[in-house]
């Protein structure tokens, strides 16, 4: 069995933050999203590869070398060109060879152990499922019906979900199913894992479900990104920074090197402050501020601000600000 982490999406729902950086390499606390997934593969003793695209290859190269991970790079540079998840799986398998595969979406954060998941793998397709507890929310995902641990029905993004149990982007596929990927695509089916599962069921392939509780985050929106940080950021990580005696830090936070917390500022709880940021006479909480951003005389709450921005004299709530933006209100 090989592990394949899918990291080739262009994350349009998080634009402009992800226009120039891949979503799996966004920070959650003191680590990247994909680091949490990689940690869960460490004890499996399996070969791990990451599937990405030409546009984001340069972002992953150093990370992959540092972690001794193989990169599979599809030759696409835009949302319009991308292969899609099933197409990317087909391409990766053409490079790596047919095998059993543990496939994990690179923008998912989940509580369960992949080792425990694989204990339930018997050589038949296995998918990880989670109860979101809300029918409206379930409409966004692949909805699963089970009898015991066997999947008896699957609906991708249904208008009227039959349950609130959804598929979470973690799959174990045997060789014989991996070999069906080409057939699925040749028939002109939609390039999505959920529709592939539906198709397999119609082909009378037995599929099983692994249910888990605690937490699961599909980092597809600013809200889910910030909620994931609140769940996973347990302890503060503060590097070499400058902080005035009138400022206060409320744990937990991550503050990267070179940041300056000046004047009467309050940072935290649940704040990520990137390298060389300046926070002056401002309050920042439940927010992610990327590097080299300057915030003066402002209140920032549940917001994500990209790198090299300048925010002055503003109150920002539930906002998403793209890189190099300059926003201010008159004094």
TrEMBL record:
<dbReference type="InterPro" id="IPR011004">
    <property type="entry name" value="Trimer_LpxA-like_sf"/>
</dbReference>
<dbReference type="InterPro" id="IPR029044">
    <property type="entry name" value="Nucleotide-diphossugar_trans"/>
</dbReference>
<feature type="domain" description="Nucleotidyl transferase">
    <location>
        <begin position="2"/>
        <end position="234"/>
    </location>
</feature>
<protein>
    <recommendedName>
        <fullName>Bifunctional protein GlmU</fullName>
    </recommendedName>
</protein>
<keyword id="KW-0808">Transferase</keyword>
<dbReference type="Pfam" id="PF00483">
    <property type="entry name" value="NTP_transferase"/>
</dbReference>
<keyword id="KW-0548">Nucleotidyltransferase</keyword>
<dbReference type="GO" id="GO:0016779">
    <property type="term" value="F:nucleotidyltransferase activity"/>
</dbReference>
<dbReference type="InterPro" id="IPR050486">
    <property type="entry name" value="Mannose-1P_guanyltransferase"/>
</dbReference>
<dbReference type="InterPro" id="IPR005835">
    <property type="entry name" value="NTP_transferase_dom"/>
</dbReference>
């Amino acid at each position: 069995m090989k592990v394949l982490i899918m990291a080739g999406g262009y994350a349009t729902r998080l634009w402009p933050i992800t226009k120039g950086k891949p979503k799996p390499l966004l920070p959650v606390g003191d680590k990247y999203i994909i680091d949490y997934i990689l940690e869960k593969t460490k004890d499996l003793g399996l070969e791990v590869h990451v599937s990405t695209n030409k546009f984001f290859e340069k972002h992953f190269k150093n990370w992959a070398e540092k972690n001794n991970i193989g990169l599979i790079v599809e030759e696409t540079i835009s949302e319009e060109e991308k292969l899609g998840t099933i197409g990317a799986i087909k391409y990766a398998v053409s490079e790596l060879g047919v095998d059993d595969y543990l496939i994990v979406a690179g923008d998912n954060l989940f509580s369960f152990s992949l080792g425990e998941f694989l204990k339930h793998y018997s050589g038949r397709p296995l998918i990880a499922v989670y109860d979101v507890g809300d029918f409206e929310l379930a409409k966004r995902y692949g909805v699963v019906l089970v009898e015991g641990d066997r999947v008896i029905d699957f609906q991708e993004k249904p208008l009227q979900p039959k349950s609130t149990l959804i598929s979470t982007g973690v799959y174990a596929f045997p060789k014989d199913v991996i070999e069906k990927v080409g057939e699925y695509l040749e028939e002109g089916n939609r390039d999505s894992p959920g529709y592939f599962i539906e198709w397999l069921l119609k082909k009378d392939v037995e599929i099983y479900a692994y249910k888990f509780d605690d937490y699961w985050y599909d980092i597809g929106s600013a809200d889910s990104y910030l909620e994931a940080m609140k769940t996973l950021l347990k302890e503060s990580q503060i590097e070499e920074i400058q902080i005035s005696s009138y400022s206060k830090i409320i744990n937990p936070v991550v503050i990267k090197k070179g940041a300056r917390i000046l004047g009467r500022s309050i940072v935290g709880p649940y704040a990520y402050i990137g390298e060389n940021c300046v926070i002056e006479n401002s309050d920042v909480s439940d927010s992610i501020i990327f590097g080299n951003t300057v915030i003066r005389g402002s209140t920032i709450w549940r917001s994500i601000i990209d790198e090299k921005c300048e925010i002055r004299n503003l109150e920002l709530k539930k906002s998403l600000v793209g890189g190099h933006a300059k926003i201010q209100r008159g004094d």
